Amino acid sequence: MFKKEHSLNGLWAMFFLFLGLSTLIAAVGHGYSELSDNPVKFWSRAFAIVSVYFGGMASLSSLGEKRIREWLKWILSIQALAFFLWLTLDNTFLPIKLSSLFGLGLIVLGLHLYSFSRFSFKQDLWIIGGIVVNASAAIVNTYKWSFGPNFSYHDIGHVIMMVGIFIMYRGITNYKLRYAT
Fold this sequence. Notes:
Helices cover about 80% and strands about 0% of the residues. It has about 180 residues and is mostly helical. The two termini are about 10 Å apart.
């Protein structure tokens, strides 16, 4: 039993590790150059895709149906590969937005909505809330809402994402494995 819980915690740990690396490298990338296709930003974006993959894999424990879990593992793997290949051809923020929309917005959010409707675990609400808050950061980025040149939509989006990530972390720290992944 401990091994299964450790495995789940390991998947969420990888989610946060790659998300943190992505954010750190993005900060360096923004300081290095405003060009959207610089090589530093490529690795930030690549790590964001990997992070979304691990978030999806960790969320599969919410689903009891083994056959559907196996299909979703394949879908998550293909999704990560497809968005990574797209990123190699188009090193912009668009592949990351769509990867997050698909991986976090549809799969992870959907799994935790299903889990909450079935089990009423409050941890699922924290994860759902974090995803919703992070989605608002994408809206800020899309519409380029800023408070001026010193607090641009990049800055606002990152502040919102920090709040969303903290909310998700609150749910994940008390999350228990319900099914073997």
